[in-house]
């Protein structure tokens, strides 16, 4: 009985170790680092989990080393023990010794592989993904101990893998990224608004801010015709165009390729018959694919309120800072009832 019990207990220990390595591997990748950092202020285990996330490449090397060692150990210890236990049964059934040994070996291999995959890998993986922060914190200390014990070996393995990856032009990553992409944040805002945790106006404001990197200036150019005056126009022509359109900035020159713009404010002290050529300001040009964020940054650097959107050698339209801000951050509707 000593032999079978020893093999059984050893098998349980090996599968448990494999489950630990698989769980900590998936938990560290799936856990939100911000949540771990929040718990780290009051929990030593959470601080250990944060350290694991900070050197994820070494941790993954440790997990892979541990899982590989467990697989080899099962093949060296458990599989022969199961085969040794099954072979006499098939021999007693009248099978030839060579056939009984072959069947026992096949069944032992299948049984050990199934047990390792289900109990030692797939079940722990599912648990870690379902409870990433909890499992990352719970298993942080055992994994830190394993990494400390085998640090030289893990460093060698990790450096070798990094060199191989760099040879293909990929930069290795040493820690889990903590940022969320705009799509994830946009989904979070939408979910918060639908659940009532965020009011509609605040939701619109946040959604608008997230659109800064997605929305392109080409999407803001409407069907409204470009307001312009000829290059030979006078101050009176600019004032008249402003009154007709309601715009304070009037383009000068061919609408398809304007020379610049004139602000009506600059014409207030000028004679009505004066040519506007001396009052023309440069107007920045933007590609239709330019993001609103990049457009705002460029217009701020050049201290301009209006920019031309040009594509295929012609002017598609114009955009202003106020147009971009209003499209992203719609004004809050004020109540017209109540106070007078």
Distance between the termini: 94 Å
Order of strands in the sheet with most strands: 1-2-3
Report the C-alpha radius of gyration, rounded: 35 Å
Helical percent range?
55-70%
Question: Tell me, what's the shape?
Answer: elongated
- Let me know the number of strands: 6
Uncertain segments are 334-340
Output the helix-strand order: HHHHHHHHHHEHEEEHEEH
Provide the number of structural domains. 2
Biggest β-sheet, characterized?
A: 3 strands, mixed
By secondary-structure content and strand pairing, the structural class works out as mainly alpha
Instruction: Report the average pLDDT across residues.
Output: 80
How many helical stretches?
13
Strand content: 5-15%
How is the topology of this model organized?
Layout: H1 2-30, H2 33-40, H3 44-54, H4 56-92, H5 97-130, H6 132-138, H7 140-149, H8 151-167, H9 182-195, H10 200-210, E1 228-229, H11 235-245, E2 249-254, E3 257-263, E4 285-286, H12 292-301, E5 306-311, E6 314-320, H13 321-328
Parallel strand pairs: 1-2, 4-5
Antiparallel strand pairs: 2-3, 5-6
Helix pairs in contact: 1-4, 1-5, 1-6, 2-3, 3-7, 4-5, 4-8, 5-6, 9-10
Structural account:
By secondary structure, this protein is mainly α. It folds into two domains: 2-167; 217-328, CBS-domain (Roll). The chain is built from 13 helices and six strands. The chain has helices at residues 2-30, 33-40, 44-54, 56-92, 97-130, 132-138, 140-149, 151-167, 182-195, 200-210, 235-245, 292-301, 321-328, and strands at 228-229, 249-254, 257-263, 285-286, 306-311, 314-320. A hairpin with a 2-residue loop joins β5 (306-311) and β6. The longest helix has 37 residues, at 56-92. Residues 334-340 have low confidence and may be disordered.
């Amino acid at each position: 009985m000593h032999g079978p019990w020893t093999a059984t207990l050893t098998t349980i220990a090996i599968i448990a170790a494999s489950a630990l390595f698989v769980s900590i591997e998936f938990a560290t990748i799936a856990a939100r680092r911000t949540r771990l950092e929040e718990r780290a202020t009051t929990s030593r285990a959470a601080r250990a989990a944060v350290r694991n996330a900070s050197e994820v490449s070494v941790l993954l090397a440790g997990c892979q080393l541990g899982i590989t060692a467990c697989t080899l150990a099962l093949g060296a210890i458990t599989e022969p023990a199961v085969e040794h236990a099954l072979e006499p049964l098939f021999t007693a059934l009248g099978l030839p010794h060579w056939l009984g040994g072959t069947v026992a070996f096949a069944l032992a291999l299948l049984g050990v592989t199934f047990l390792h995959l289900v109990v030692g890998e797939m079940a722990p993986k599912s648990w870690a993904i379902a409870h990433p922060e909890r499992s990352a914190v719970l298993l942080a200390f055992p994994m830190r101990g394993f990494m400390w014990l085998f640090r030289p070996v893990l460093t060698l393995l990790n450096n070798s893998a990094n060199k191989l990856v760099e040879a293909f032009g990929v930069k290795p990553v040493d820690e889990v990224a903590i940022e969320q992409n705009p799509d994830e944040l946009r989904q979070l805002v939408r979910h918060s608004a639908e659940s009532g945790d965020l009011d509609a106006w605040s939701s619109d404001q946040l959604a608008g801010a997230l659109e800064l990197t997605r929305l392109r200036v080409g999407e803001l150019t409407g069907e409204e015709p470009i307001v312009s005056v000829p290059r030979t126009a006078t101050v009176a022509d600019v004032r008249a165009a402003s009154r007709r359109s309601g715009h304070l900035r009037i383009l000068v020159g061919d609408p398809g390729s304007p020379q610049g713009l004139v602000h009506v404010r600059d014409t207030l002290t000028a004679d009505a018959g004066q040519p506007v050529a001396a009052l023309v300001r440069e107007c920045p040009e933007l590609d239709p694919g330019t993001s609103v964020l990049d457009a705002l940054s460029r217009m701020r650097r050049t201290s301009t309120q209006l920019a031309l959107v040009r594509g295929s050698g012609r002017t598609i339209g114009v955009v202003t800072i106020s147009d971009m801000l209003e499209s992203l951050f719609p004004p809050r509707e004020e109540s017209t009832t109540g106070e007078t």
